[in-house]
Amino acid sequence: MRAVLVGVDFGKGDFAASLSELSLLSRSAGADPITTIIGRRASPDAAFFVGSGKADEIAQAIVEDELDIVVFNHALSPAQQRNLERRLNVRVIDRTSLILDIFAQRAQSHEGKVQVELAQLQHLATRLIRGWTHLERQKGGIGLRGPGETQLETDRRLLGDRVKALRSKLDKLHRQRATQRRARGRNHTFSVSLVGYTNAGKSTLFNTLTKAQVYAADQLFATLDTTSRRIYLGDAGNVVVSDTVGFIRELPHQLVAAFRATLEETIHADLLLHVVDAASPVRMEQIEQVNSVLKEIGADHIPQILVWNKIDAAGLDPALERDEYDKIRRVFISAQTGTGVDLLRQAVSEYAELSNAAHLDGAQPAELHNVHY
Fold first, then answer.
1. CA distances from residue 252 to 67, 131, 190, 262, 295 in whole angstroms, order as listed
2. I need a surface site. Which of 129, 170, 196, 305 has the fewest CB within 10 A?
3. Alpha-carbon span 359 to 344, nearest angstrom
4. pLDDT tops 50 at residue 369
5. Does residue 241 register a pLDDT over 60?
6. How far apart, in whole angstroms, are the C-alpha atoms of residue 224 and residue 89?
């Protein structure tokens, strides 16, 4: 599917990095970005987001390059999306729809599929308005995968019933996870969650730490389903390590809400390993994005170690850094080559031993959190 990417620079954040990310997202969804059209505005146009003149420029590119789809690097309102599709005569999707589509392709577990469908239907509910009839004949493709194409032909009542059923399923899965966590809590098993920006190398690190065979690839959102493994760390005993979905800038709120059950592994962890792509020029912005989502799901109070991954690509040496309180703050590793992973094991072991000692002393887990990191 040949695509034109559209980005508008509003003078906020790293526009070039965001556009580069959109290209990666498009390829991950199965599109082939042929051309990119950019513009600069103070604020979005109410009718076309980009303004009438820029819409004409996009229309011309569609004809000249025989393009099939327009992908916006922004969230479009239902009216803007509808106006653009009438003007351009091809499918128009926004960043939210694109990410939802990738999630629909990648979800493997029953829970992952339920969460993705719920997010898609919640997004679709805002667009179940008059004016979509011209799309009902278009089957499949980016933006209409999963429940999208059939639900366009249903009414809000049926959609509402389906959303209710999916929420009920997720509640049940949520209770099952809570039961498993309580069992771990009774056994005082120290739990660690890997978090980080998408494609930072979490799954590769998870496989290196646990000798698991979790799917890891150099693409966005390779992992959607939380996987947990138990590892043994000598004096620290057994530790449960969980791999989680990657975060991204402007992660759709529907996805954060739908994946709350999965992300609860993060909320209830004793320690977060915040994996950072040390070779990325926008790594500091990515760290901020991840911390923003952690705050949104209520996990910002959990101690975290910054794991600077891909040091081989960044030209850095393996190292372990402590802060002024002698707490481990950063560990520099390469999950791909295994360099520095022994230092990370040492760091996790140190935190686990501290936690175990607190349990033996009768301290509450919260007391561990009230130290400076």
1. 26, 24, 31, 16, 15
2. 129
3. 23
4. no
5. yes
6. 33
